[in-house]
């Protein structure tokens, strides 16, 4: 089936378009070009009908039109100040407006702070999730404790003693190997001088042979 065509929004014209545009300019209380008005009203009025309505509003002295080169800018006429009940006109001063702005800014800061705390609360786990997490951690701790108890029960004193003996012998063997290695290099140096091995290649071949025998000797001593 072919896709359904989007229903067209009925476009206003005449007096309806004039009232809509005038109300929009009063609400926004700022200047607009005809293209901006049509776009901001979501094409409820076509550009042609909007131009006619704007010209009619200007002719009726309901709005003001200013020309900037070829561009026509439209704005509503100055609106009378609407004073709320319980407020006198003398109370409306620059100082009062600035104070209200400061209070409004402080309120916005409070709103942002509370919004941040709310977002943090949403990220944090709920009470139910915390209880489940605590129960899970307790179970893990209990299982770990049981494993440690089992290892302690299965461990034998002789195994610990044997391990200490092996570590002690390992240190002795390591120390002996280092001493023999130092003796070996000193011996190789003396033999090289005695045999006149001035050629580096001959020294390397002789050293490889001696080192091989040395490692074999060490392995025999260990095993």
TrEMBL record:
Residues 16-77 form the Homologous-pairing protein 2 winged helix domain. Residues 97-161 form a coiled coil. Keywords: Coiled coil, DNA recombination, Meiosis, Nucleus. It is found in: Nucleus. One of its GO terms (biological process) is homologous chromosome pairing at meiosis. The keyword tRNA processing does not apply. One of its GO terms (molecular function) is recombinase activator activity. Pfam families: WHD_TBPIP. GO terms for cellular component: condensed nuclear chromosome; DNA recombinase auxiliary factor complex. Belongs to the HOP2 family. This is Homologous-pairing protein 2 winged helix domain-containing protein.
């Amino acid at each position: 089936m072919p896709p359904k065509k989007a229903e067209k929004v009925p476009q206003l014209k005449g007096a309806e378009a004039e009232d809509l545009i005038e109300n929009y300019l009063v609400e926004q209380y700022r200047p607009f070009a005809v293209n901006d008005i049509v776009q901001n009203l979501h094409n409820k009025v076509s550009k042609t009908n909007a131009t006619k309505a704007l010209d009619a509003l200007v002719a009726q002295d309901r709005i003001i039109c200013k020309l900037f080169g070829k561009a026509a800018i439209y704005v509503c006429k100055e609106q009378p100040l609407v004073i709320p009940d319980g407020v006198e006109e003398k109370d409306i001063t620059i100082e009062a407006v600035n104070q209200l702005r400061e209070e409004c800014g402080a309120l916005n800061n409070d709103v942002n702070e509370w919004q941040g705390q709310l977002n943090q609360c949403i990220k944090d786990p709920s009470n139910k999730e915390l209880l489940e997490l605590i129960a899970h951690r307790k179970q893990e701790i209990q299982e770990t404790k049981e494993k440690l108890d089992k290892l302690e029960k299965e461990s034998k004193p002789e195994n610990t003693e044997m391990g200490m003996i092996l570590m002690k012998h390992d240190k002795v063997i390591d120390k002996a190997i280092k001493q023999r290695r130092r003796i070996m290099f000193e011996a190789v140096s003396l033999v090289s001088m005695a045999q006149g091995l001035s050629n580096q290649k001959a020294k390397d071949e002789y050293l490889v042979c001696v080192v091989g025998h040395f490692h074999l000797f060490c392995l025999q001593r260990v095993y």
